[in-house]
Design goal:
This protein is α/β, with parallel strands linked by helices and 462 residues long. The protein has one domain. 34% of the residues lie in helices and 12% in strands. It has 15 helices and 11 strands. Strands 1, 4, 5, 6, 7, 8, 9, 10 and 11 form a 9-stranded mixed sheet that branches. The chain has a two-stranded antiparallel sheet with strand order 2-3. The protein is globular and about 75 Å long.
Length: 462
Amino acid sequence: MAHVSKLSSLHRREFLKRASAASVAATAAPWALQLAAIGDAAAATGGGDYKALVCVFLHGGNDYGNTVIPYDDVSHQAYAAIRPTLAIGRDALAATALAPTIALPDGRQMALAPGLSAVKPVFDAGRLAVMLNIGTLLAPTTLAQFKAGSATLPPKLFSHNDQASLWQSSNVEGARTGWGGRMADLMLSSNGRSGLTCINVSGNAIFQAGENAFQYQMGVGGKQAIAGIGGGLFGSTACASLMKSLITEDRSHPMESELNRVTARSIDLQSTLSGALAGGASMATAFAADSLAQQLRMVARMIAARSTLGMSRQVFFVSMGGFDLHDNLPSRHPALMQQVGGAMASFDAALQELGVADKVTAFTASDFGRTLSSNGDGTDHGWGSHHLVMGGAVRGGRFYGTAPSVSVNGPDDVGQGRLLPTTSVDQLASTLALWMGVPSSELRTVLPNIGNFAGQDLGFMG
């Protein structure tokens, strides 16, 4: 039970008192999940030992070939030959060429897309790492196994919805929970407001759904109050009060009762959150006007209010679309990269301003990578990809994973430059989970397939 103190600030006596009130049905669950079942009743004041994860999801399947780009002469020549209409010239990459603290083997060099120039100083400062050839896997898989049909492969490869769901949940579309939500299940009891453990600023995502944790959805301006109940309705405070009662009181019908319970919770959280954001720390850091930047600005504001809200662990989700570039990739992808780079650089600056850079880790994710080969004006659905992990606790300034061969039908390619991942999403997730305080004994609760992989801690977190 050593991990109980790691995930909760409850004193032992208070913990035992609250645990005795938990449902008897929960006794069959892992001990940490019993903590989650206690919910708000078991919440303690947090904010001291604070940590947060931020998933930056790029919907549509980001093109890895023009995101982290081969830069050494030999590799760049191969890259340019494979995608002559899409390749970024080597001269244009000079400003974003990376000098990692540990060099890649065989003289390999990589550069960030020019649009990501804003985060190159973050890499240079050691707060940004690059994950090479990461993707959905159920178990380690070789190219020989793939070709022989003997590997246990993720279902429905190259399908947008299913692969996005696999990234976020370890299962295809229709999954009930995601690994961010399952992680949050273990941490609800250490938060003053367990309903604010999982925050989605971009809509809805399976990533944040847990058995007990739910995602609290909000917009870039905060949570919109239910019209009419906060003041006069038809000019009458009595009408407003009656309206609030109608939509929150207990009902005899179970579905009506549950709807009103959720509505009452939403009203309570909206009021609490609005007050906390209004009284939170101001930030001088500027964010661009685009959606991703504004989503990350709201995440920074939420983090600034962590002590007021009593939060110790939080999981955030932000996203942007437009990455399914079967055509117009040369004209559209650079602008997308610029938005990602600018938003993440501003977020890094805001975290430093708030003094919490080492307490927050952000990472990019996407449905899948794309083909290295060009279809003329774009690329098609792929598998493995390159991603970024950013934060003050990240052992940055270097690459993790294996740099793939720059070739079509080569040793890392299942066809058309579709990378066979050499690092699994589960390994990324387990590394982040361990940093967040999930005990190794509970990793399989969060990530059912993690036992298939030898490397459960990839070493990129301090």
